Amino acid sequence: MGLTKDFFIALSKNQVLNSGAKKWGLKLGASKVVAGTDIDSMLKSVKELNADGISATIDNLGEFVYSREEALEAKKNILATLEAIQQHGVSAHMSVKLTQIGLDVDPGFCLENMREIAEAAARYAIFINIDMEDYSHLQPTLDILHTLVKEFDNVGTVIQAYLYRSEKDLELLKTVRLRLVKGAYKEISEVSYQSAQDIDSNYLKLIKIRLQQPGFTSIATHDHVIIDEVKRFVKEHNIPLDRFEFQMLYGFRTELQKQLAQEGYTFTVYVPFGEDWYGYYMRRLAERPQNINLALKSFVSK
Question: At the topology level of CATH, where does 35-276 sit?
Fold first, then answer.
């Protein structure tokens, strides 16, 4: 299992394959977990979720951005997506990766791009979640976030439970809206828990700390054991249901998504779309190797 995960994480970082994938369209089974390659396809998926009482956080996919031109193009696409959310009146906010808008080019340039996105989103009363990436980008991402939250109240980020430092980061972000996740990248033992049991244990610990802090919390997991424990905890501690939400990825455990929404929990689905789908999909295969058969069948059928 570890070897399989390492293999797909390595594939996710392959720029040659990523470039090729933009020309393929959604193949290898990716259409099951990516909501199309354009805004119209994404909106159709979001409207279907909204009809089931489920909101969306939209990710206009993009990776391997190392030039100002690519970063500015990504910013333009994000701004167009925000405008589409506003125009169509869908229940949705946006998730943005800072590397997509120039973090690896120049942090100051990235901050200005993010500031423009946050301003546009604020005009439309749309929240922007800054996605967390691998450990090398963690502190630069938090540095930009701490600057932005002094100016905007519609910006938040992600805390990853597999990192040792995450409990300390929670304390610094008590009032900021956060998404809590287990973590999808491969990190070294010096900075992160390595076993699933340790990660799960720390994840639950962080969730319980966070639910007693003032900021809104998105609990992003497909793990029904953790979901059941969260339900028990909020009931025991009289935590209002409007203080948190559950999140899952598009295309995963759809019946459980609908069930939780029907039970009265706020529910949001992470909806990725765009031509730059390859890296995202490889990380999903790394997390869920049972999807490999699906990918292979799709590839053969093409």
Answer: TIM Barrel (3.20.20)
